[in-house]
Amino acid sequence: MYIAEDINQLKQLFVTKLKGMLSDDEMGAFILVMANSHQDEFLKSELDADLKNTFSVLKSKFSTGKIKAAADDVAVFERLLEVDLDDVPVWQYNNIGDWEIALNPIRQLRPARAASQILSSIKQPYDENKFHFNKPFLKPEILWEGKYKGVNSRVLYNKFPFSEYHLLIVISPENNSSQLLTQDSHQYVFSLVEEMEEKFPGFGIGYNSLAAGASVNHFHFQGFIREQDFSIEKEQWHHNSGEFEYPLAVKSFSDAGSSWQYLDQLTMHDQAFNCLYRKGRCYVVPRKFQGAVELPEWLNGAGWIDVAGAITVSDETTFNTIDEQSVANALVLLKQ
Predict the structure, then answer these.
(1) Nearest to residue 146, comparing CAs of 172, 114, 120?
(2) Residue 323's domain is classified under what CATH number?
(3) Which of 76, 135, 149, 318 could be disulfide-bonded to 313 (CB atoms 3.0-4.6 Å)?
């Protein structure tokens, strides 16, 4: 079994593990649960009472210096002290022409980590001293781990999610591999999406190379559950045999073999890229290195979901005023 038997069991596991993570002494866990609870009304209603109770205790302990936490978590918590949790909305969506815009206010609290670094190569050595997914303090954030088809996998919550039922999928975490795609892992994920989509309708996986939105240099993918198509999947685009050119140079593949040949070439040439794996399909988007061009604030740190045409913003003004051409123009800036 991979994670759960079906979609209902997966969603119930998702909620149950989040509830169990809350503690009067764990500031980081509170932040993770709160960020995940605002994905939709179901998750918010299931977690709201527990979150408020935990927040009240944490505030009291924090004000008297009775709780210790990582510097990143303290910075986030101090900002949360300025808001009423009831005023934080669940994610909202607008379809603006070809693009989807999501309002996710909590996302702005996320530490940048490597996603803000200016890199000159997608090939960087793994560094045990930097953040990675084998850190002992991350154990409570594990949704599921086990072996599937001979490969060890660890599935964690995303602390600041930006896609529905957002998961961090760490393949063979014991290998301490850097964020560099290999043929075996690519083929494994391609087949995993094809198989799991039957159990979890809408299941897909995204991948960011370094210098293309990856914020952790420890080999991982990002899973999600989303039944509706991304813009990049629509038939109108040239890469899907349609009439119109996508703002980025997209390659669409229906098998793992031919897609790997292309990905291997990108890796050999040290080319930054994003991937989107959907059932029977892999979209590959070569793009400029992060930091190579000046982007609008709402596209900084752009990764697989942004190049797929789903843009996450964290302020309501941008959400209400952004227009179709602005999104297209911004994506063009990333075109390699």
Answers:
(1) 172
(2) 3.30.428.70
(3) 318
